[in-house]
Write a structure and sequence with these properties.
about 290 residues, alpha+beta, 3 domains, 5-stranded antiparallel β-sheet, 9 helices, 10 strands, about 40% helix
Length: about 290
């Protein structure tokens, strides 16, 4: 056995003991009669729990350990929520059913980083009830590390559209062809989001877990002088059309995506900002406030 494999087994044994409440011992098997060889796939379980306690008592102890861990988890989340809560006026109390769902989901969260997200949810719901739906809680609970990473990368590219209370990612634009030149498709410019860290697999992941709509969305046709305003990290960015018939294209987050995006406070992706300015500069005036 190599050193690494020995360390892995030791670590696994400790993990098992923490969860079961008992250590597992290797069983010494009697030699096979007549020197018969037992293939690996025919081997039985070599480890068992050596204890004077019966199976029922061991099961009860494991349940107690689980209850203790859950209690520690929910206490950690609620403690963090008090630390994070600002001194503002609350609009009311969270719905009792919502709060019960929250506790039943959050008590299984042992990861410190994830506990902080759940604490932010409790703070947000305490300040403004109805901010986070139960569906969003369930989505967050089931998210894998890969899905959480995709949301993190997405968040740094999102602009907030105040009038729709939603987040979106500008992809580019196209210019509608004039009536006199219907055969032309018009000029089109698209941003390669992968250059800013949001790859196509990331986008598909967000679509699969219903955090982003599957279809690209287009703005209304903008005429010269008209503009669209988005908010990036509390700073407004104004996209003003330099000519007529310009249409912005973008990915839009779903309601669940909007709610979970509010938990992630990341700076604007600098590469994306540069790509945005370079792609739109010919047809739009971008004003950063």
């Amino acid at each position: 056995m190599t050193i690494k494999s020995a360390q892995a087994r030791s670590s696994l044994a400790l993990l098992i003991e923490e969860k079961l409440g008992y250590a597992m011992t290797k069983q010494i098997k009697p030699a096979q009669p007549n020197g018969r060889y037992t293939p690996n796939n025919a081997q039985q379980n070599n480890f068992f729990i050596s204890s004077q306690h019966g199976t029922l008592k061991r099961a009860l102890k494991r349940q107690q350990l689980k209850k203790i861990q859950r209690q520690q988890n929910i206490e950690a989340v609620m403690g963090m929520s008090l630390t994070l809560c600002p001194d503002v006026t609350s609009r009311g109390r969270p719905d009792p059913d919502w709060l019960e769902h929250f506790i039943s989901l959050a008590e299984d969260i042992a990861n410190h980083t994830m506990q902080k997200l759940w604490a932010k949810i409790l703070v947000g719901e305490s300040i403004s009830p109805g901010t986070f739906s139960i569906k969003s809680l369930q989505t967050l609970k089931l998210m894998t590390q890969r899905e959480a990473e995709a949301l993190q990368k997405c968040a740094s590219l999102c602009g907030y559209l105040e009038k729709e209370d939603s987040y979106l990612i500008i992809l580019g634009f196209y210019k509608k062809p004039s009536i006199l030149d219907l055969l032309r498709k018009g000029s089109t410019e698209t941003i390669n989001l992968a250059q800013a860290g949001l790859s196509f697999p990331h986008i598909l992941t967000l679509m699969d877990i219903n955090l982003m709509y599957r279809q690209e969305i287009e703005s209304a046709s903008l005429q010269k002088g008209q503009s669209l305003t988005l908010i990036y990290q509390n700073k407004k960015v104004n996209f003003e059309a330099k000519s007529n018939d310009l249409v912005l294209s973008y990915y839009k987050l779903t309601q669940t995506g909007d709610e979970l995006k509010k938990l992630i406070n990341t700076p604007v992706n600098k590469t994306y900002r540069q790509l945005l300015s370079k792609t739109l500069e010919d047809e739009f005036t971008l004003t950063f406030e």
